[in-house]
Amino acid sequence: MKYIINFILILLWSLPIKADAFFEDYCIGYFEEVYWVLDPIEDEEVRDEIIHFFTEKFPQSESLNFNLYYNTSTRQFIFDDQNTDLSQFIEVNYPNFEILLLDTYISLFTQGDNYCPAFWNDCSEESLDSFFSGAKEFSDTWRGEENVFSFLENDFINNQCISLLNTDIDRTQFIADLNILIKELTKN
Question: What is the dihedral of CA 167, 16, 20, 165, to 10 degrees?
Answer without folding.
Answer: -10
